[in-house]
Amino acid sequence: MGRDVYDQPAPDDLPVLHYLRSVDLARNRRRHYLVGVQRDLLGNLVVLRCWGRIGARGGMRQRTTPAADLAQATRIIRGVLRERQRHGYVEVTIAGGGP
Predict the structure, then answer these.
(1) Percent of the chain scoring above 90 in pLDDT
(2) C-alpha count within 13 angstroms, C-beta hemisphere, residue 97
(3) Global confidence as pTM
């Protein structure tokens, strides 16, 4: 029999989401990027990435990447953060005590 999703650790045990922005008004660039780890419907760890243009309706894209464990998920997230920061994104604090 499969694992019961409710037997898995709560998402509160997982790292916080990281929210990044890249704004350059001279180049008409207003982008956002969100990356974090969560569990899918089967209880497996996935790294979730969402991105799009700030203020655009329905324009957000997303991608999930499976992770074998929390250590692998953390490595993926660190790599994404480094890549986004190289492209001019900066991490911002979000309401509710985020990063």
Answers:
(1) 62
(2) 2
(3) 0.75
